[in-house]
Design a protein that fits this description.
CATH architecture of the largest domain: 3-Layer(aba) Sandwich
Number of strands: 11
CATH class of the largest domain: Alpha Beta
Helix content: 25-40%
CATH topology of the largest domain: Rossmann fold
CATH superfamily of the largest domain: P-loop containing nucleotide triphosphate hydrolases
Bound molecules: adenosine-5'-triphosphate
Shape: globular
Strand order of the largest sheet: 7-8-9-3-10-11
Order of helices and strands: EEEHEEEEHHHEHEHEEHH
Radius of gyration: 18 Å
Amino acid sequence: MTAVTFRYEAMLMRFDLAVEAGESLAIIGPSGAGKSTLLNLVAGFETPLAGSIKLAGLDMAGLPPAERPVTMVFQEHNLFAHLPLFDNVALGIDPGLRLKPGDSARVEAALAEVGLTGLGHRKPEQVSGGERQRAALARALVRNRPLLLLDEPFAALGPKLRREMLDLVNALRRGRGLTVLFVSHQPEDARHGADRVAFVQDGQIRRIAATADFFAEPRLPEIAAYLGEAEG
Ligand SMILES: Nc1ncnc2c1ncn2[C@@H]1O[C@H](COP(=O)(O)OP(=O)(O)OP(=O)(O)O)[C@@H](O)[C@H]1O
């Protein structure tokens, strides 16, 4: 994305970002910095004031979210409580649940890929928080989009489970050749799961670097302060 600007009231944001296919980029930074907005611009949930967003070489201007090569998982409200996990995943194929021959097998395969074999009949309340987010991931996977956006989907999970989920995301990324952008409040997530890290503050990417370099040398005092606070 190039010179993409966006405004919420007094807050003007401006993003320039280039991501390689197959890469995993962590987006970290303080609360209210613009991390979710950055993902929402890529996904098409927000429209830039100016600038251009290209995904897989195609200009996204005017394209609604459903027509973009993108799928997104959120922190919460990913699943419908009254539907079993199978149906929740199948919604990624058809929002009206009109499944064609072969679609059920696709849903089962996605459930298996995220480690939920045999749990498709359960309602969201009948599984753990980690399993719910696995189901949300499976729904994203059945959409077969090359770019996976994750907006803190593992924030409610403990450190060990978050690492497991990040490992799962990376295994899926490699297996399917996905590109992954994930927002996290936890620098540890970036350290564990990302090729590169982007630090967002005041509506801009202030630094982007390979993960090892980013943590070895924070460079900006704001980043050192943020890491100090976030990692205690
Ligand atoms: N719908 C909205 N209307 C007005 N302002 C908004 C809206 N959504 C976000 N903002 C403002 O835009 C700025 C960026 O918000 P954004 O959600 O992108 O930040 P974030 O870095 O993802 O924060 P957090 O880590 O707390 O989720 C914040 O100052 C926020 O208050």
